[in-house]
Amino acid sequence: MDDPFPAVAEQAAAGEIAAIFADIRATVGVRVVNLVWRHLATIDGALPWAWAAVKPLYLQGIADRAAVHFRETMTLPRLGSLSSAQPKSVDDVLASYDHSNTVNLFTLGALVAWLRGETARDGTPERGPRMAAPDVVLPKLASAEDVAPETWALVLRLNRFGDPHQVILASMYRHLAHAPDFLRRLETALTPVDADGSLVRAIAANRQHAHRRATILARAIEADRPAFAGQVEASISAFVDHAIGKMVTICRAIRIARSVA
Prior knowledge:
Elements (H helix, E strand, L loop, with lengths): L14 H14 L6 H6 L5 H14 L2 H12 L14 H29 L32 H11 L11 H5 L4 H16 L2 H20 L11 H29 L4
Helix pairs in contact: 1-3, 3-5, 4-5, 4-9, 5-9, 5-10, 6-8, 9-10
């Protein structure tokens, strides 16, 4: 699978990019920098501008409050039980992505709305206490050369659930590639809800709900429109509308099926 979204690896980052990556980890409360930020680092000037624009939404608890309300009304497919014993690292990965993807959905969704001129005319972004981020260490972010060919093929098949034309490889599956037995069980659980359309319907409903709330959060963004605004909007919207937009639903459904959420 060719990746149309190149990214700066965390270990390869230097100078200002490395400093922003460190700030993202500290502010979001996770130990890895999500792919969307690493991709923005490949566009000259985009990462510093985008991070400055949305950082207040994290610091003021705006994204966290939106995430809390979102989870109260999410539409989720029924996956059945996935609670059998697995390495603790499986739940660590799920907890990390459940947290970061959900808050990122609202901060980045708000930025996309702002860039598109879709900021809500009314409504006040709610501020409040921040959610505690999971304090976990994740396994290696696997690439094809790190795992058996059949495991990598499984990662790619899983990535098509909920969006068969997906062009962004969800990092969560790569972080779970160390546990192929769990990935096989996950494929078995996702197959029927994908086939009956309930997974796609849930993802669509949650995307729509998140977008409405994100247009209100966009009212909290104070920034100057950069010359590269179109390129940033196209890049971020690909993640919000597709990769992050689908994985918040899939990850939350998996955690509930494991009875750990």
